[in-house]
Write a structure and sequence with these properties.
The protein is an alpha/beta fold. Helix content is about 40%, strand content about 15%. The protein has helices at about 15-20, 45, 50, 70-80, 95, 105-120, 140-145, 150-165, 185-190, 200-225, 250-270, 275-285, 295-300, 320-325, 350-365, 390-410, 460-470, and strands at about 10-15, 85-90, 125-130, 175, 230-240, 240-245, 305-310, 315, 340, 350, 370-375, 415-420, 440, 455. Helix 8 packs parallel to helix 10 (about 200-225).
Length: about 475
């Protein structure tokens, strides 16, 4: 008998800004990523947008991406063939509100998502919808510095209200912001923030995050008024931070890093800023500007579940000299853990860390959890017979799912699991296509060349078996 419940939501996850393409079709406005190139050229505008966004690049991968906009029927049919119970996807905010500040939504954008939900219903796939997945309209970043301006609460609430009114009877699970803590690590795509070197970076990032938190609570209020059965979740870019050694200074340093990532989820799940935030803000020189009623809104409208992404654990030292050796393989800087292997992109692979993370989050909040991103980005080769032997991905996922099931045995209530990039999509960090996560190969390279043909990988059939057996057969 399976450890997982019969209604466990197996599936996959994608994001509009990394999959849809059609960046200027049927009234869509510019998204933050529509001005980002691929590869090494991406780093400058990603981390220093005030410098890099004035440049013109030869190729912008989001403009066509994998063209999910025109291939959604084919792709959802393939998801159904794998046996998906759920698909996590996001709505493109600028596809509905091209500049972000319009009063009425773009009807052609709504009609596109009507067709998406029609197709998901046809195949009995439950949609898990992220309202804001690194997709703030670029106009709001350029004119208002994104979420740093409180006006974005109004614009976001208007956008979310349109979604709940139109889809509130069709979509049960909603996530207000993708990986809300990433605003501290990639503030441009996390919050539409264009921060100059002379700016008070911490003040801008935490103030912007406060606005996102208030917007999330107001969205929760509106959703429940429209349909009390709607389930609203927050989302964390998760991964337990381990102490580098058992030295008490290392343990304290790891605790502080974990608090840095949990602070926003503390607010969304518990309804108030945690006790440690007062000292943390003081030491960072942050003075949050709140309006009357903010604290009451946060306290009253907390989330129903906590979703998170997990790719790796991290390692932290209390010694600043040792921390100079941190690598920046992904958005989170970390010391190298000698007990872990790493991917070709330097992401340390830690399946047991997923079990640790699940237990830590549940111990902290006692709310249902949902793993909405987990996967391995690697280089896949197409064989002469059009097969793709991605055993390394199967191994990675099998080991992580095994630890997920161990966490359920530990008593963690888990809604579902949606593997990241269930079909190959553009990498958020590097803009590459060669860094592939999917069960389905898409014929497109880093320069935008290729037929866009879809090919089932070996992992496609493996995941099909996993879903069919409800996680009982993870063999590879």
């Amino acid at each position: 008998m399976s450890i997982l419940k019969n209604n466990f939501l197996w599936g996959g996850a994608i994001a509009a800004n990394q999959s849809e393409g059609a960046y200027n079709v049927n009234g869509k406005g510019l998204s933050l990523v529509d001005l980002l190139p691929a590869g090494e050229d991406r780093k400058e505008p990603l981390f220093n947008p005030s410098i890099g966004l004035n440049k013109k690049f030869d190729f912008y991968p989001s403009h066509e991406s994998i063209d999910f906009y025109h291939h959604y029927e084919e792709d959802i049919k393939l998801f159904s063939e794998m046996g998906f119970k759920a698909l996590r996807l996001s709505i493109s905010w600028p596809r509905l509100f091209p500049n972000g500040d319009e009063i009425e939504p773009n009807q052609e954008g709504l009609e596109f998502y009507d067709k998406i939900f029609d197709t998901l219903e046809k195949y009995n796939i439950e949609p898990i919808v992220t309202i804001n997945h690194f997709d703030t309209p670029y106009n709001l970043a350029e004119k208002l510095n994104g979420w740093y301006d409180r006006k974005l609460i109004e614009y976001y609430v208007r956008y979310a209200t349109v979604l709940f009114k139109r889809y509130g009877q069709r979509v049960k699970y909603w996530i207000t912001h993708n990986e809300i803590n990433m605003i501290l690590h990639i503030p441009y795509i996390g919050g539409g923030l264009i921060i100059k070197d002379s700016d008070d970076k911490n003040q801008i990032m935490y103030q912007a995050a406060h606005h996102q938190l208030v917007a999330s609570s107001l969205a929760t209020k509106i959703a429940k008024e429209i349909n009390p059965e709607i389930q609203i979740g927050c989302m964390l870019a998760a991964g337990e931070v381990y102490p580098n050694t058992c030295h008490p200074d290392d343990v304290m340093a790891a605790l502080s890093k974990n608090r840095e990532q949990y602070i926003f989820i503390d607010v969304q799940a518990r309804g108030e800023y945690p006790s440690y935030s007062k000292r943390m803000f003081k030491e960072l020189g942050v003075n949050l500007e709140k309006q009357s009623g903010d604290d009451e809104i946060l306290k009253t409208y907390t989330v129903d579940f906590i979703s998170f992404s997990y790719y790796s654990s991290r390692l932290e030292s209390g010694d600043t000299e040792i921390n100079q050796n941190k690598g920046n393989a992904n958005a989170f800087a970390s010391l190298k853990n000698p007990y872990l292997e790493a991917s070709n992109w330097g992401w340390q692979i830690d399946p047991v860390g997923l079990r640790v993370t699940l237990n830590q989050i549940y111990d902290r909040y006692q709310k249902p959890l949902f793993i909405v991103e987990n996967g391995l980005g690697e280089i896949d080769e197409v064989n002469n017979d059009n097969t793709i032997n991605d055993r390394y991905r199967i191994k990675y996922l099998s080991e992580h799912l095994n630890q997920m099931i161990e966490a359920v045995k530990d008593g963690v209530p888990l809604i579902g699991y949606t593997s990241w990039g269930c079909i190959d999509i553009v990498s958020a960090g590097s803009g590459e296509m060669k860094k592939r996560y999917g069960f389905i190969y898409v014929d497109r390279d880093n320069q935008g060349n290729g037929t866009l043909n879809r090919i089932r990988k070996d992992s496609f059939y493996w995941y099909q078996k996993v879903i069919k057996t409800n996680g009982e057969d993870l063999s590879f």
